[in-house]
Write a structure and sequence with these properties.
By secondary structure, the chain is of the alpha+beta class. The protein has a domain at 25-111: Transcriptional Coactivator Pc4, Chain A (Transcriptional Co-activator pc4, Chain A, Roll). Helices cover 28% and strands 28% of the residues. The protein is built from two helices and four strands. The protein is flat and about 85 Å long.
Length: 145
């Protein structure tokens, strides 16, 4: 078979293939009460939902598909019953306190760190290790290991 014959057959098959079906993403279950942006293509949606007349909070990861539409991740989501909300709120309050303490500790550690030297600038000799031959520091000494 020649190259042109093969191209013609490929085009014939291409013409016979039905167009790709486009799907419509499912609608959210209940009104959305919050969105947490994770990245340009992922977000957590929080919805006030209902199942068999019983309300609950739905937390689900949604991803942007190749088609540009948002789709729920079937494996990453959960529901929170209304009676569980006070315990969840208490746990989130504790998490906020821990996050605040963590950030405060991080800021303090950064404030106490000397700034790195600017490229092309000399280091301040006061913060350099002692010069070679000093008895205070010997990188090859067994005492320093």
């Amino acid at each position: 078979m020649t190259g042109n014959e093969l191209r013609n057959r490929a085009e014939q098959v291409r013409q016979a293939i039905p167009p790709k079906r486009t799907a419509t993403p499912p609608t959210e279950n209940g009104p959305r009460i919050g969105t947490i942006q994770r990245s340009a293509d992922e977000e957590i949606r929080v919805n006030w939902s209902e199942f068999e007349g019983k309300p609950f909070i739905s937390l689900r990861l949604w991803k942007r598909g190749d088609d540009g539409q948002w789709w729920p991740d079937a494996k990453r989501g959960m529901s929170v019953r209304i009676r569980e909300l006070p315990d969840l709120a208490a746990a989130i309050a504790e998490a906020l306190d821990l996050a605040e303490a963590n950030q405060r500790q991080w800021r303090e550690s950064q404030a106490n760190r000397p700034a790195p030297p600017m490229p092309g600038r000399r280091m301040d000799p006061a913060i350099l290790p002692p010069a070679n031959g000093s008895k205070d520091f010997d990188e090859f000494s067994e005492d320093q290991r």
